[in-house]
Specification:
- Helix content is about 60%, strand content about 10%.
- The chain is mainly alpha-helical.
- The chain has a two-stranded antiparallel sheet.
- Helix 2 runs antiparallel to helix 3 and helix 2 packs across helix 4.
- The longest helix is centred in the C-terminal third of the chain and has 17 residues.
Length: about 90
């Protein structure tokens, strides 16, 4: 269920109807730099945030852990990107 819209580099953004599980799994790819995704904590945080909003308890845990490794401006950017994704979905 991936849309054809690409992130600046890496995998396509998930479609608006992506489940919490799908968003969480994509966040894992970005948080580890696997599966064709670059290592990108901002994208991973954004995806974990969206997954948490869709009911993924695991995503809440990973988002919290990841945010401790990020600068506050990176967390703010991830939150901005999540809001933008929600607005365009």
């Amino acid at each position: 269920m991936l849309a054809s819209v690409e992130t600046t580099e890496g995998l396509p953004l998930p479609s608006a109807d992506a489940s919490g599980d799908e968003l969480f799994k994509m966040g894992l790819l970005y948080s580890t730099g696997q599966g064709g995704a670059p290592l990108d904590y901002v994208s991973a945080h954004m995806l974990f945030n969206l997954a948490a909003m869709r009911g993924s308890v695991e995503a809440k845990v990973y988002r919290k852990e990841l945010s401790q490794e990020m600068a506050s401006d990176e967390v703010a950017e991830a939150q901005r990107q999540a809001r933008e994704w929600l607005a365009t979905g």
